[in-house]
């Protein structure tokens, strides 16, 4: 049976979500004069969101990229507000319900794109990078210790549609373990390509992951397949940096949650010599700034400094 392990690692609680109320600067008149020839809706969106981007955990690559975007696009006075992926989704849902402007750090795959009408803001400066992949990583020596489990991880590959189907069921209230079981049972042919040539095994395997909806989904699915092969599987949620540290230090066995080259790029560079990059398990991932489609801007360049 899948279990959620804590071991010596602590769950990292999401920081509470709060909006920053910005005061007026002494040069407002000058800024208004400078922006007089720009669309009124552009300025109103920036003001309506209180010059705030609603982010997730500070250690996440998309959060750091959002902070870089503030600098690169010279958005003086803007704040990237740290919270958690769950708190961000809640804030987004409330804004959509009331048709209020909001700018959030976003990524694909994610169930929010199926539930709400959303769009990525164009990023002419390329701060958020191009399309990403999600990769599988294991500790050094895992392949020798568990050759069949390693082969399963090596052959694990699915699509954004696959992942979003699991995420959507979880978002609707199904437990991650049950949603994973449902998906595995409904996709026997695809799972068979992962287990081709893989013999049943025994022993304990610990998978670590960051508590994003996407990684909760993929880790539970892989955990279910490994469990069906005879392994005792522990799923441990960790902060981004600690997740990588756990694999590099041999404290955990594997993860299917490495976003490259941008989101986890700095962590990969830090730990790449001490981990085994098994390969890509999903292509077409993306990060950026996201707004509801009713928000009347299309590019990060449409935002105004405070």
Summarize the structure.
40% of the residues lie in helices and 20% in strands. By secondary structure, the protein is of the alpha/beta class.
The end-to-end distance, rounded to whole angstroms, is: 53 Å
CA-based shape: globular
Radius of gyration: 21 Å
Mean pLDDT value: 88
- Please give the share of residues in helix: 25-40%
Total beta strand runs: 10
Q: List the uncertain runs.
A: 6-41
Largest sheet: 5 strands, antiparallel
Order of helices and strands: EHHEHEHEHEEHHHHHEHEHEHE
The structural class is alpha/beta
Strand content is 15-25%
Count of discrete alpha- or pi-helical segments spanning 4 or more residues: 13
Multimeric state of these chains? single chain
Write a structural description.
This protein is of the alpha/beta class and 306 residues long. It is built from 13 helices and ten strands. The protein has helices spanning 28-34, 40-48, 61-72, 85-97, 112-115, 142-145, 147-155, 160-171, 176-186, 188-195, 213-228, 240-248, 265-271; strands spanning 3-4, 52-54, 79-81, 104-108, 118-120, 132-139, 204-209, 232-237, 254-260, 275-292. Strands 4, 5, 6, 9 and 10 form a five-stranded antiparallel sheet that branches. Strand 7, helix 11 and strand 8 (232-237) form a beta-alpha-beta unit. Helix 8 (160-171) packs across helix 9 and helix 8 (160-171) crosses helix 11 (213-228). Residues 6-41 have low confidence and may be disordered.
